[in-house]
Amino acid sequence: MRIADFAGAWAVVTGASAGIGREFAEQLAAHRVNLLLLARRGELLDTLAQALRQSHGIQVQTLALDLAEADAVNTLLKFMGDHAIRPRLLVNNAGVGRWGRFEGGDMAANLRLLAVNAAAPLQTCLALFPVLAAQRPSVVINVSSQAAFQPMPFMAAYAASKAFVHHLSLALYEEWRGQGVYVQTLVPGPTATEFDALAGAYPSQLAGRRDPAAKTVSASLLALAQQPPLVISASGTVLQRLFAALAPTKLVLDKVGQMFRPPDQA
Questions:
Q1: 75 has a pLDDT exceeding 60
Q2: Which residues belong to the active site?
Q3: What superfamily would CATH give domain 3-265?
Q4: Would you say the pTM of this structure is higher than 0.85?
């Protein structure tokens, strides 16, 4: 399976207005894949859609949608039905982060984080499976995070939500591979996007180089040929995973906590 085989098919990309989601839209469009782009910021989606139509001659539909809303997936399904869109690719990229002490975030913010990062991928995978399975081979790409590999003090809810989608995605790989639906779990490294700023990031030991979003998306699409369950574009994850798995739990929590502790709490 190659991405070129999907020319003329439809892909659904969530969180497509910026960052990794926007890069998925651009690279898929370059392979002449038709796009249904989702994000909260409809104006950005419409601008991107117009540019992709003009550059690649593809069909692009946009849906301004907050995936934290209780009926978001039903809204998506209705839109797909109204526009006769039957996707062969689903990219669950939308994500929300929050840095800082757990008790510093209000209930609504934490519940929204869980809805977008964990519930929405679960719901879209389940809701779109019949359509994907009917057009095999098809693809689901769930964007995970290095945060999924261990608990993260001071990013507690975010890491927990990414651990959920990470394990869900890997399990679906095994369940669905015999039905013609390839589920890829994608782990980016720190990426040059607006994510940290929106999540309230502060100076920490994580400071350093950020990869371009193109690196992550290119790795994801190239992996379609081999269909591995896990695609990691981040560097240093082997040592990270070994440390998280083999070191005493108290040591892991202490070291990660030191990395992400707010400056005023150091």
A1: yes
A2: 158, 162
A3: NAD(P)-binding Rossmann-like Domain (3.40.50.720)
A4: yes
